[in-house]
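quick one before i forget lol
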Amino acid sequence: MNVNKIKPVLKVNKISEIDRFKKKKFEEVLKENKIMSERNLVAISIKHTEYRWKFGMPCTLWGSRTKDGENRSFGGYTENPYKSELYSLEDWQKEKSPAWIKTDCPVEMELKFCKKYKKFNTVLVTLEDYLSYCKTCGLYYEQ
């Protein structure tokens, strides 16, 4: 038997592989854009929260809630997550926030949260994560 005469049985259709790759990349971009533009983040002011903060205490949140078509509120504070502004990562990138505000990605609520992120003035947390934290700590707010 001559080894040189054996031909590969499986042929890969290069066009379909390229199409699958493009489709996958396109879906990733769409998902990333949705994540970037989804208004599901609250901004926690570490600077105003950290004084004697312990796990179980409320955090100081930025802004007052606006509707989708309105300009985002980047001023004022509240402890009520239902009245604070909801942001997207895109909102913060448009605002050209300074380096002392962590806006590249949301962080998680955890023990020693303020100490861990003390180098930042403000961090972003998903509303769902913050509400879960509030429920765990027995903090209830009127919607």
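fyi Residues 97 and 113 are 21 Å apart (CA to CA).
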